[in-house]
């Protein structure tokens, strides 16, 4: 993996060594304090740049244009009227490539490397993490051109794992508000305030190419701000589950990717 990852700074190949444990401890502390950790330059920037070049043809011809209006929950909430300010609708627009469209990519090599899941599970304090069996959903790559954005949402899974491949010239920041809600308290008023732009606690970070970003997406409201300029924002998302063999239903694949297979 040394040809694609900076294993000198991030010794993922030596699970449970003292250097590996120190890195895991740092990530756990960042997750606790910030709801997020970053490994800046985990993938070598030139490898990330080559991966972007290799995907430019499939992005131009085969990618799914994901464009829709949605609220922060991606669904109706029982007990909340449709005009409640926490259910305000926003537009999301990006292009998505699925795992079956990036054969040979270093992203799939990283995803399938067992030490990657071992490391992530340790940072998230989970006994094990497993790759998906879903041929489309395992790894997705999203591209945002000028004006495109991923709007405010909460994720379905507790943690989300991304790796930035190309940063745009302007915009395309990752804006987040950690712990805006909890299992006990949906905090609809706080959500409404955030969507109304009244949100002093939200932060925006711009990731650099090659950076692994792990955040607690389930209760952290987050969005990608609109990209501007000629350079697209390109980011990959890795899906891991606590159980092996997870696949989406055909209906879920059609909803996310416009096709079942
Ligand atoms: O593109 C990003 O930085 C975040 C992606 C994200 O929030 C998601 O895939 O759910
Ligand atoms: Fe998300």
From TrEMBL:
Residues 135-242 form the Fe2OG dioxygenase domain. It comes from the Bacteria. Keywords: Iron, Metal-binding, Oxidoreductase. One of its GO terms (molecular function) is metal ion binding. Belongs to the iron/ascorbate-dependent oxidoreductase family. This is Fe2OG dioxygenase domain-containing protein. It comes from Falsiruegeria litorea R37. The lineage of its organism: Bacteria, Pseudomonadati, Pseudomonadota, Alphaproteobacteria, Rhodobacterales.
